[in-house]
Write a structure and sequence with these properties.
The complex is a heterodimer. By secondary structure, chain A is mainly α. Chain A is built from 18 helices and ten strands. Chain A folds into two domains: about 190 residues, no CATH class; about 240 residues, MetI-like (MetI-like fold), CATH 1.10.3720. In chain A, helix 4 runs antiparallel to helix 5. Helix content of chain B is about 35%, strand content about 20%. Chain B has a single domain, classed as 3-Layer(aba) Sandwich (Rossmann fold), CATH 3.40.50.300. In chain B, strands 6-7-8-3-9-10 form a six-stranded mixed β-sheet, sandwiched between helices. Classes of the chains: A mainly alpha, B alpha/beta. Chains A and B meet through helix 14 and helix 15 of A and helix 3, helix 4 and helix 8 of B.
């Protein structure tokens, strides 16, 4: 390391040139990985077939070429580093982790080839594969780090490429392992293996980019962790894109704007009515809205209040730990059990039919533990200095909680509520049991209009609260399973799309609130 | 030690009596470990004793953090508490406004009188006590609110300022009083010049030194008589420290200031009298600052202030 630094400082023209070569050779596999990821991903997602072309080249050829280029670069680095042409600072060995990883790959590859392609019995292939795997692992352990990282990764990439190039693996290839009801197709395996090989070569290249050693291992790890984080984002985007693609046009079909303020969006603003030939989900949207609002009204005051009590007043001890355990247990209770409880306990007491109110209460129970847990954490993380400062001014505990602790904890509390809304808005099982009557309703529950004052207790009644309702997840479930809507898959997709929009708009409200509270706390 | 509240009770006189009586008990009941303790002569105040501490013991669980502390803190002056880490000076300070109540394992035995009134009596109103005895902490801890709200927080909570909707309906002129209060406290804390144009900014945007002066202003807003400061400048740079030190000296004209510091030069610069605590929670010597630093009675104090240990 020190030698390298000295060289760079003395600006030895050769050293600069060689480090440029290393940078170039190690950037290429990372670039090819991204290309393979995009092209292979498109193929896996069914957007392109392996036979179709990109920029005039067949996709199968593109993937193969990427494999060879990445593998070739790595092998070039290994040769250059081995003979000192490229300046690197490798350790003595790549380590047991890398060795066992590549050893396992070798074991699996040899084993599969022996047993499936050549049909050898397990007494033959198992020892051979084991010997092969151990040899690879041993070679990596005893080789210097630069070789131990780049050579196996490069060879792996080239091997997969050769397999495709020499038709060992073709799009038509299919393999059904005996006693396992899944068929592996070449159309899936080729892009998948290309992406995996790309990941391995890109990791090795990131390692080489920093010249191996501690810095190299760190770069390799950063690359893998970064790839993980990106993958999470991609899963979300894929999910949303899939639903939008399938549901968007159905959902926005028939929107009329004007004349004047006249605006009509049939799918969102109509009920479901066979006679009027309306296929809308307005009742379900309103049902979900009221369910979420009702659950929040139920759960937030109780949850935050309990959190304040447990954190600020109750002494840490058996009582609080029992409540903690109970809260965590409540949080992990399956939602259908909540639904069953609501059906057996609440429904008979609330007019003996499924109702919106029962759904609100059950969802409130489900939301309660999350609000409690997150509020508790948020209140715990308020610095004790604030409490000390307030106490030293002679301010009572309750005033301190009201004016200092809770405002400081507000962003955390709101975060918990946001997560909770995401959960309950999409909850199907309890709704199915305690709220739903007819999945495809023609009219929405009119909560605001149903409040009536009476002269006798309870003085205020609301019929709509006590009658059944639909909700978006339940409507979706109905559309998928019961076939009430007939052969109309777009209806289900569009419902999912609107459900996503409703949940996201609750998120937007929550996140805006959180930003507001954060702003108030920050300079 | 008299905990009874007597209308004709003259705090100064009675305390002085207590004081000399204690000097006697201290000499006779000298435990073996206190043998090294020099019998520092009874200290004559220049003013009235504001706080009078008598045989104060503090325990954290079974561990004794303070041993029989007896001292009188004079009015309108700066009293410095110095000593090595873990000697109990901060614990002692927190006894004076009963902040130790907030630590569950802490128990206090003995007497602290504020102008002759026992603060460790049953049924004492902590709100009034802490309004009269304010505190500034080691690291600046302004609330995450605006500068204005930080200062008006205390008075608002004590009902001295009401600016809510109700107050407006009732025609209260608190808004104006709040402005005056904020200006007065910030001026007293020598912060007005720097922040007068951004009172509605969040206090966390101020620098550390400004935050600490804001904390002092916040403390002044509830009109305390005594201000306790727990190493108020230890988290600050030298320039901010100098400002805080000047401020402390100014404040002593109106308030009784008790400052804990581990910085002996600081104690020598700002204080009128100095109490030296040494390991084990004992008060070794309490006298005029000049005397402590130039000619202490106790050899241990001399060793400490001249830097031989600590």
């Amino acid at each position: 390391m020190s030698e390298r630094t000295l060289r760079n400082q003395s600006r030895d023209p050769l050293a600069v040139e060689y480090s440029a070569a290393l940078a170039g050779l190690s950037v290429v596999p990372i670039a090819t990985f991204f290309a393979a990821f995009v092209v292979g991903g498109l193929t896996l997602a069914g957007q392109r077939s392996l036979g179709s072309t990109i920029l005039g080249i067949e996709i199968e050829t593109v993937l193969t070429a990427l494999l060879f280029v990445a593998g070739g670069c790595l092998l070039a680095i290994s040769v250059g580093s081995r003979y000192g042409v490229i300046e690197t600072t490798p350790d003595r060995s790549a380590g047991l982790g890398v060795a066992s990883g590549f050893g396992f790959v070798a074991f699996s590859g040899i084993g599969l080839a022996m047993s499936q392609t050549f049909g050898l019995g397990r007494l033959v292939w198992a020892p051979l594969a084991l010997i092969g795997g151990l040899t690879v692992a041993g070679a990596i352990v005893f080789a210097r780090e630069d070789l131990g990282v780049t050579v196996p990764a490069g060879l792996f990439s080239v091997a997969i490429g050769s397999l495709v190039l020499f038709d060992g693996l073709t799009p038509a290839w299919a393999w059904s392992p005996a006693g396992f009801g899944v068929t592996f197709n070449g159309t899936v395996l080729i892009p998948l293996l290309t992406i995996v090989a790309g990941l391995v070569t890109a990791w090795a290249a990131a390692n080489a980019f920093e010249g191996f050693g501690a810095a190299g291992r760190q770069a390799g790890a950063f690359f893998l962790i970064g790839a993980n984080a990106t993958l999470i984002l991609l899963v979300l985007l894929l999910l949303i894109a899939f639903i939008v693609k399938n549901g968007f046009w159905y959902a926005v079909d028939g929107i009329e704007i004007g004349p004047g303020l006249n605006f009509h969006w049939p799918f969102v603003m109509d009920g479901y009515d066979v006679v009027l030939n309306q296929k809308g989900i307005y009742p379900a949207i309103i049902g979900t809205f009221w369910l979420v609002v009702g659950a929040l009204v139920m759960a937030v005051p109780i949850g935050v209040g309990a959190a304040v009590f447990l954190t600020e007043y109750a002494e840490e001890g058996r009582f609080t730990s029992v409540i903690d355990i109970a809260t965590n247990g409540l949080w992990s209770t399956p939602s259908v059990v909540f639904g069953l409880f609501g059906y057996a306990f609440l429904v008979p007491r609330l007019g003996n039919n499924t109702s919106l109110l029962a759904g609100m209460i059950v969802l409130g129970f489900m939301l309660l533990p999350l609000v409690l847990i997150t509020s508790r954490e948020a209140i715990k993380s308020v610095p004790d200095e604030y409490r000390d400062a307030s106490a030293a001014l002679g301010v009572s505990k309750w005033e301190t909680i009201k004016d200092v602790t809770i405002p400081s904890a507000m962003p955390g509390i709101v975060t918990g509520i946001i997560i909770g809304i995401g959960r309950i808005a999409g909850e199907t099982a309890p709704i199915l049991i305690v709220t739903a009557d007819n999945p495809q309703r023609s009219s929405a529950p009119a909560i605001m209009g149903s409040f009536e004052l009476t002269t006798s207790p309870p003085f205020i009644v609301n019929e709509a609260l006590l009658s059944g309702s639909s909700a978006l997840p339940y409507q979706l479930y109905g559309a998928i399973t019961t076939g009430v809507v007939g052969d109309d898959p777009g209806y289900g997709w569009a419902t999912a799309f609107v459900l996503l929009l409703v949940v996201l708009s609750f998120y937007v409200i929550g996140i805006t609130t959180r930003i507001y509270f954060r702003k108030k706390l920050q300079a | 030690m008299s905990n009874t509240q007597n209308a004709s009770h003259d705090p100064a006189e009675s305390n002085r009596d207590d004081r000399s009586a204690d000097a006697v008990t201290q000499t006779t009941a000298g435990e073996s470990q206190e043998e090294t303790q020099t019998e520092w002569t009874d200290y004559e105040f220049r003013g009235e004793p504001k706080l009078s501490v008598d045989d104060l013991d503090v325990y954290y669980g079974d561990e004794r953090a303070l041993q029989g502390i007896t001292m009188d803190i004079p009015e309108n002056s700066v009293t410095a508490l110095i000593g090595p880490s873990g000697c109990g000076k901060s614990t002692f300070l927190r006894c004076l406004n009963r902040m130790n109540d907030r630590i569950k394992s802490a128990s206090v035995d003995g007497s602290v009188e504020l102008e002759g009134e026992e603060i460790y009596q049953d049924g004492l109103d902590l709100v009034t006590l802490r309004k009269r005895v304010g505190m500034v902490f080691q690291s600046p801890n302004p609330f995450p609110k605006t500068i204005r709200d930080n200062i008006s927080y205390g008075p608002r909570k004590h009902g001295d300022i009401e600016t809510g909707l109700l107050a407006r309906l009732l025609g209260d002129d608190s808004g104006e009083r709040e402005e005056k209060l904020v200006e007065r406290c910030l001026k007293q804390a020598a912060l007005w010049e720097e922040v007068s144009d951004r009172l509605d900014d969040n206090a966390l945007g101020l620098s550390g030194g400004q935050q600490q002066r804001l904390c002092i202003a916040r403390c002044l807003a509830v009109d305390p008589e005594v201000i306790l400061m727990d190493e108020p400048a230890s988290a600050l740079d030298p320039i901010a420290t100098a400002k805080i030190e000047d401020l402390i000296e100014e404040l002593a004209e109106e308030y009784t200031v008790v400052v804990v510091t581990h910085n002996m030069q600081q104690a020598a610069r700002i204080s009128d009298q100095t109490a030296v605590f040494l390991t084990g929670g004992e008060l070794v010597e309490f006298d005029d600052t000049d005397k402590i630093f130039e000619n202490p009675e106790s050899q241990r104090v001399e060793d400490y202030v001249t830097g031989k240990f600590g």
